[in-house]
Amino acid sequence: MMRRLFWRIFAAFWLATVVVLLAFLWIATSNFETEKIPGLGITRLQALMDDSLSRTSRELRHDGREAAETWLRSASDFGPISLYVFDASGREMLDRASSPEVSAAARHVIAEAKTLPDDGSLLPTHDDGRLRARAIRVKDDGIYGAVAQLEGTFVSRLLSRRPMTFWSNVATGMIVSALFSLLLAWYVSAPLQKIRASTRRFAEGDLDARVGALRFGRSAEMTALASEFDEMASRIKTLIESHRRLVRDVSHELRSPLARMRVALELARDGDDVQLQASLDRIESESARLEAMLSQALELSRLETQRRAAQDTVPLDQLLEDVITNADYEGAPRGRKVVLAECERQMITGSRDALYSAFENVIRNALAYTQDGTTVTVRLARDPRTSNGALITVRDHGPGVPAEELARIFEPFYRTDSARTRSSGGTGLGLAIARTAVERHGGHICAKNAEGGGLEVSIKLPTAFGANMPNA
């Protein structure tokens, strides 16, 4: 396939250069025959005919008849111009047959020359475009008529050049153009072949296949294509590995509740009414946990694979107020409150649902671990480090997280310890969903242990992000 592409590219380049070369020859020949020389009023071809007649006159007058015959024989091979010399009796010097127009032109200039005195004055000439004639007076040998005639059509004159000069130059040009076309074809096809080989390896399952740096054919377009392929391959590898990890983690996480449900079923079969009710409650609790886990896993997968976030105009202050209202209601039975301590109205372009999910998961996580009777504080302000960014902080009063594990709490199914997540019924997916949603909007999320205890999660979002959202 790539070999055929190489030869197709070569043929295209070479044919293009050959066509350009032939077109140049055509135009140059046409201009040579039709373009008039400034100040003279004749074309270059007519000037060449005049030069041939002048050369014939010099040979005949100064070197004699034999030199003139030699010159005529050599000049007869030139192609587009034929030279004839007639004596006063009308006989052609080389006894060649000629057209009636040529004979008539020779007789005409000879007859006019006979009427003129031999005093060195200009001898008569004749010109009708394709034929030019001149009288030649030779001392002690009388008057001759030299005729230069343009032979054939334009195409035949274009093709009737000397094979060892004109067409050898053309052949040299074609060979050079062929070599140049081979180089260009290789320059174009070599990087394409490398990209195709990487694509084939990637399609066969080698997720680490990359084009890398191009050593040959490093045009801006090819380099961009190779770079985009590598970025695409990296993104696909990340998605595939993420899905594999998600499936693996979900499978692992499903084992515990399913095992507990099996135990509860066994106890329900063998126990009394009290044990039966407790087992049914346990089954209901584990079913709800499974449903929440699968729902969050699907939401995480959707956020990771969607091509582009929605382009809604989202007021962040109103969105946070909605999330806080619902969370505050849920924390009321245990004396846990959620308040919006600072709020600066800001707008962002993005997906309202994804942002709502991100804020909800962070605030619910804080609400789950803050101590009874304490308040989860939420703040919305401008990011002091940028002119068009929003900073959302959520601070709880819970046990916090070990410093070495702060970055990992945003990984799917990661738990710092059994007390922090399992006792609360969490699935370990909430913060992973929040991180994915925030990053889909070009933002950043991080956590740190707050002074005085508790965990503080910071979310930075560009408010002028808009159409620059990253593709999947």
Oligomer type? single chain
Largest sheet: 5 strands, mixed
Shape: rod-shaped
The CATH architecture category of the largest domain equals: 2-Layer Sandwich
Nearest-integer average pLDDT: 79
**Elements, N to C (H/E):** HHHEHEEEHHHHEHEEHEEHEE
Find the count of extended strands (DSSP E, 2+ residues).
11
Strand content: 5-15%
What would you say this structure looks like, in words?
The chain has 472 residues and is an alpha+beta fold. It folds into 3 domains: 36-160, Beta-Lactamase, CATH 3.30.450.160; 219-305, Helix Hairpins (Orthogonal Bundle), CATH 1.10.287.130; 308-468, Histidine kinase-like ATPase, C-terminal domain (Heat Shock Protein 90, 2-Layer Sandwich), CATH 3.30.565.10. The protein is 53% helix and 15% strand. The chain has helices at residues 2-34, 44-63, 65-75, 100-114, 154-159, 166-203, 220-270, 273-305, 316-331, 352-369, 430-440; strands spanning 81-86, 125-127, 131-138, 142-150, 312-315, 337-343, 347-350, 375-382, 389-395, 444-449, 455-462. The chain has a 5-stranded mixed sheet. The protein has a 4-stranded antiparallel sheet with strand order 1-4-3-2, sandwiched between helices. The protein has a two-stranded antiparallel sheet with strand order 5-7. Helix 6 (166-203) runs parallel beside helix 7 (220-270).
